[in-house]
Amino acid sequence: MSDRYLSLQPNIPGRGILASYTPGFWLLVLVVGVLAGLAGGGLMELLHLAQHLAYSYHQGNFLHAVQARSGLRRVIALAVAGGIAGVGALLLRRIRGIGGGEVSEAVWLEEGRLSLLRSLARGVLSIVIVGIGASIGREAAPQLAGAAFASRLSERFSVKPWQRKLLVACGAGAGMAAVYNIPLGGALFAVEVLLGSLALPMVLPAFICCLVATATSWLVLPNQPTYHMPPYGIHPQQLIWAVLIGPLAGIAAAGWVKLVQFAHDAKPPGRLGRLLAPPLALTALGAIALRYPQLLGNGKDTVQLVLSVQLAGLLLFALMALKPLVTAACLAAGAPGGLFTPTLTYGALFGALFGHLWSLAWPGGAAASYAVIGGAAVLAASMQGPIAASVMVIELVHFSDTLMVGILVAVAEATVVVRLLGLPSIYSARLGRRPKRPPAPPLAEVIEGVAG
Q1: Domains, the chain
Q2: Buried residues in 331-362 as b, exposed as e (16+ CB within 10 A)
C-alpha cells in the first residue's frame, strides 16, 4: 500500500479510510441504507395497520383512538396481542439460524451474524404487538431488519469479519434512524453504543448508511420531528436544576437497568410458560390501561403530552412509577421489542415531575424543558451512550441549542453515576448475567482491521 495513504491523525488510524474500505464495501453501505429505509417504512405501515385493526386508528394521536374505544375492547385487544406474542415465540424457535434476538447480542457475541428470516419474523411479531398496545419499543423491529440485511449481504459477498460487525451495527442504526427521522442520532447509536468508539473510520460509514436510510424512508414516512414543542430559552433556575437532577437521573436509570436485568432473568422456562406468559402479562396491562391508557404502546404519545404540559402532578407520578413496571412485565413475559422510547418516556416523566416540584420553589423555567433534560439524562445513562442520547433527543424535538448546556450537564452526571455503580446498559442487561462465551471486543477488531 502506498505511503500516501498513511495518516498521522489520531482519529484516522493506520492506512486511513481511503485504503481500508474497498468500493464494494461503500456500495454495501449504500445498499444496506436503502434496505433499512424501505424496511423501516414498511414496518411502520404494518404498525399503523395493527393500530387500525385494534382501535380503528387512522391518523393523529394514537392515544385518542385508544381512549375512544371501550374498556372491554382494550382488554380484548391486549389479550389478542398476548396470544400472538406467545404463539409467535414458539414459532420463532422453529426457524433455524444464528441470531434473530437482539442486535447487541449479534454484534458482541455472534460476530455480526443474524438469520435474515428469523430476524424479520421477530421484527414483524414485535411491531404487531407494539401496534396493538404492548408497552415496549418499536425500534427493535427496524434495527433487526437493517442489521439482518447487513449480515446477509456480508455473508453473500464474503466481507471480512470486522467489516461485517461494522455493517451490522450500521444497519441497526440505519433502521432506527429511518423510523425516528434521526440520521445523526442513528449513526451515533451504531458506533458509540454498539461499537464503543467515535473513531472516524467507523463514524463515516454509519453516517452515510443512516443518511441514506432516513432519506429512503421519506418515500413512506413524513419528514418531520417525532415530537413538537416550541423553542425555549435557558434560565438560571434550569441550569441549577440540571446540576442537581443529573445524579438523581443516574440513580433512576440505575434502577431501570436493574429492573430490565431482572425481567430478562425472569423469563418463563419451557414451552408452556412461553405460550401462556405473554397473554397473562398483556391482559393485565389492558386492565391497568382502563385507568391509565397512557401506558399502552411504546410511550410516544405520553412524551408528547409531557412536552405539551398536559399531565398533572399526580398523574405524572403514577405514570412514572407504572411505565417501567409494565414494560418490564412485557419483557419478562417474553414479548419481543425495544427499550428506546419506553426509557425516554420514563426519563421525560421523571424530569417533568421533578421539574414541577422545582418550579413550586423557583418558578420561571418552561415546564417542558425539564422533561427534555430529564429524558436525555435518563436515556443517556441507561444506554451508556451520552453523545448518542443527547443528539437523538435534539433530533427528536428539533429545538434550538438553548437547552444544550443543561442537557449535557445532566447527561454527563447521570452517566457517571451509572458507571460508578458498575451497572451494564439496558442492552447488555438483556443478554443475561452469564453469556455463553466472552463477548468479542468489536472496537479492537474494527480498529485493527482499519489499521491493516
Answers
A1: 3-217 (1.10.3080.10), 236-431 (1.10.3080.10)
A2: bbbbbbbbbbbbbbbbbbbbbbbbbbebbeee
Q: Which residues, in sequence order, are bridge partners of residue 137? A: 338
**Helix and strand totals (H; E) in the chain:** 19, 0
Nearest to 89 by CA among 342, 265, 272: 272
Please measure the distance between the N-terminal and C-terminal CA atoms of the chain and give it in whole angstroms. Answer: 10
Gyration radius of the chain over CA positions: 21
- Model confidence pLDDT, tens digit, residues 285-296: 999 999 999 999
Phi then psi for residue 338, to 5 deg, are -100, 180
Which of 8-22, 57-71, 139-153, 353-367 has the lowest average pLDDT? 8-22
Query: Which amino acid, residue 123?
Result: G
3-state secondary structure of 116: helix
User: Which amino acid is it at 44?
Assistant: M
In the 8-state DSSP scheme, what is residue 159?
-
The whole-angstrom separation of Cα 153 and Cα 156 is: 5
Secondary element (H or E) of residue 374: helix 367-383
Query: Are 185 and 388 a contacting pair, CB within 8 Å?
Result: yes
- Say which residue the cell 411505565 belongs to: 323
Measure the CA–CA gap between 119 and 367, rounded to whole angstroms: 41
What gap in Å lies between CA 186 and CA 174, rounded to an integer?
A: 6
Q: Are 277 and 86 in contact (CB under 8 A)?
A: yes
Residue 410 in contact with residue 250, Cβ under 8 Å?
no
Instruction: Identify which of 173, 92, 172, 153 has the alpha carbon closest to the alpha carbon of residue 126.
Output: 92
